Amino acid sequence: MRKLGWQQWLVLTLFLAALIVAGLFGVRGVRHALYWSTHRDVPIRAWMPVPYIAHSYRVPPHVLYQALGINPSHPHDKRPLRVIARDQNRPVEEIISLLQETIARERASGPPPPAPRARPSEGGTPP
Amino acid sequence: MSLSDYLLGMLGLYGPPALFCVLLVGAIGVPTPGSLLLLVAGSFVEQGEMGLWPVLALGFAGSVVGDQVGYALGRWGGRRLSARLSRWVGGEQRLRSAEDWLKRRQGGAIFLSRWLLSPLGSVVNITAGLTGYPWPRFLLYDLLGEALWVTLYVLLGRFFSDRVEEVSEMLGDFTWAFAGLLLAALLGWSLLRNLRAPSAEELKAGRGGAVADETS
User: Fold this and answer.
1) N or C: which end of chain A has fewer CB within 10 A?
2) ∠ CA A19-B28-B11 to the nearest 5 degrees?
């Protein structure tokens, strides 16, 4: 067999490193795909407007607007939570926990949401 | 609060015009979460908060205009850089041969870096301009790739409308996995070609044999 020079060793090392990187990202991607095929409740973040959260958690938007003290007759309020928090002079974390409590109450009182195959309590944390 | 959160909030407030602006500056090279914004815009379309056609049209227009600005920066702003580069790499001739190679191969790179390897898009725009890649061909590959990127991501956002951030993370993982595989394939091919080529000793022995045959 032909002896490898230092340039070939360098290319071989880079080749193996590229394969390892591809493998790691591939495995992470597959784990994410498997996790999110059975879980639906995404964490609430400061950029999200109320209709997006209502859509993600499958609760009526007016319930969330009411919890935040916003007139539900104004359904197209697209302000992100960050802006709502600033306008109401409250920390955004407080708004997020208020919404989480409201969603939990709404789900406990109403019929179970359609589609999801795993409840958040069974889910653990995303990979 | 991260830049990404801020831009997503802007998208919710101002709609497709915000998408146009973010994709435009992203194509020039400012690090912005363009793919995530397209997915979120798709989710807003699904919720009835935005229209599909304005999102597709302004998303497409923003990315294509930004790509042309990137190309122009490379083409007309990069000449000074090119002159310096030619001194570093060892002369005009070497730079010219690298440019020729890029011109032959760049069509595929332009197309793939629009949608499959989108993090490389802004670098490819500037490189295409710098190497003098013909603009009409650049525009053709750009239009095809961007149309595919914008449509694909907006539709994925519509389909996975209730968990777009998570889908974006997953797509990012697959993008880097693909980039790693592509790089591995290129390096593996180069290594194999190098190993199959006759070594200096083999060439010498071959020539020696030929000379011996001629003298006998």
Assistant:
1) N
2) 95
Given CB atoms, is B159 within the 8 Å cutoff of chain A?
Answer: no
The residues, ordered by sequence, that sit 6+ positions from A102 with a Cβ below 8 Å of its Cβ are A59, A63, A64, A67
Structure tokens at B194: 């190098």
DSSP state of A111: P
DSSP string over B158-196: HHTTT-HHHHHHHHHHHHHHHHHHHHHHHHHHHHHHHHH
Q: What residues contact B152, with CB distance under 8 A and at least 6 apart?
A: B115
Q: A56, exposed or middle or buried, with CB in 10 Å at 0-12, 13-18, 19+? A: buried
Q: Note whether B48 and B54 are within 8 A (CB).
A: no
- Select from A9, A25, A41 the residue whose CB has the most chain B CBs within 10 Å, as the one to mutate to test that interface: A25
Residues in A closer than 8 angstroms to B191, CB to CB, are: 8, 11-12, 15
Residue A10 to residues A6, B125, B192, B196, B197, Cα–Cα distance (Å)? 6, 29, 13, 17, 18
Alpha helices per DSSP H over chain A: 6-38, 50-57, 61-67, 81-87, 92-109, 120-123
Torsion of CA B157, B161, B164, B167, to 10 degrees: -70
- Locate the DSSP E strands across chain B: none
Q: Is the pTM of this model over 0.90?
A: no
Q: Are B156 and B150 in contact (CB under 8 A)?
A: no
Instruction: Tally the C-alpha atoms within 13 A of residue A89's C-alpha that lie toward its C-beta.
Output: 0
Judge whether B162 is closer than 8 Å to chain A, CB to CB: yes
